[in-house]
Amino acid sequence: MLPSLSRRGALAALALGLSGGAFAQAWPSKPIRLVIPFPAGGSTDIVGRLMGEKLSQGLGQPVVIDNRGGAGGTTGSDLVAKSPPDGYTILMGTSSTHAIAGSLYSKLPYDPVRDFAPISMIGTATILMVVHPSVPAKNVAEFIALAKSKPGQMMFGSTGNGSISHLTGEYFKSMAGVDLQHVPYKGDSPMTIDLVANRVQVAFGTAVAFLPYVQSGKLHALAVTDAKPSPVAPNLPTVAASGLPGFEALQWFGLFAPAGTPKDVLARLSTETHKVLQMHDVQEKLQSLGIQIAGGSPDQFASFMRSESIKWGKIVKESGAKVD
Q1: Looking at the structure, do residues 50 and 82 belong to the same domain, yes or no?
Q2: Which among 122, 171, 222, 258 could disulfide-bond with 85, CB atoms 3.0 to 4.6 Å apart, if both were Cys?
Q3: For residues 84 and 258, is the Cβ–Cβ distance under 8 A?
Q4: pTM score, two decimals?
Q5: Calpha distance 118→162 (Å, rounded)
Q6: What pLDDT, in 10s, does the model give residues 166-207?
Q7: 112 plus 135 within the same structural domain
Q8: CA geometry: angle at 175 spanning 174 and 179, to 5°?
């Protein structure tokens, strides 16, 4: 009798194991939602749509883009943080949502570390410092002198409170000792429209957002915020070499899932992301946008994010920036 019960127990355990394996193998069995926490048309949206299109091919299911802009990317990020951890809702996070927001917002509705599972870093983007052509400054030093002669009269636009463009502007104000009025927008597109219209005079933003306007003469680029000259704009000096030693700001992009997402699902997402980043056409597209491909394991991404959080936390404290 006992051997019979043992056999039944063994068969039951085997059945459970097979059903668990079948469940794991069945993922994904329906479309996956990729939340972009910024409006359509901006750099995060462009990168997210490219990744979504390619991931859908590897995963065998549609990857549906869901733009949820607002509050410097925190609205969409919070949505993903509170979504079921089943692999069917993921986020295109950025330095704004996962390195800056934790220090900038006094009541952030999510924890950038605790509430997310890193999948993979996508890459880093060159940030340009640009001005409207009517601004009589040919370089960073001239702009600083001009801004000091007009305290509080010049306006700098950003892609939203708490965004990388906002904090880079605050960082610049603090290091340069200038008084610029901050005007937040809901993404790259509306900010760029007003910058071209001279409603704001200066902004810090990604090359993908600004380069077409710089090349057409509608905007004038003064510098890049990278630590060294960027391959996407090799003729532009760095802000650091233009009178503000040590100045460096990078925009980065990466994929996240809600904390608690099964490890096998995270591993599959990470593997497929790395496959996408190795595609020649993807590499060409990202590089044309001024994005340096990163990749790496989830653990490497988590480590990088922690170091970025420490860096931006210091910048937020020194600049006195705060969003409630």
Answers
A1: yes
A2: 258
A3: yes
A4: 0.80
A5: 21
A6: 999 999 999 999 999 999 988 888 999 999 999 999 999 988
A7: no
A8: 45
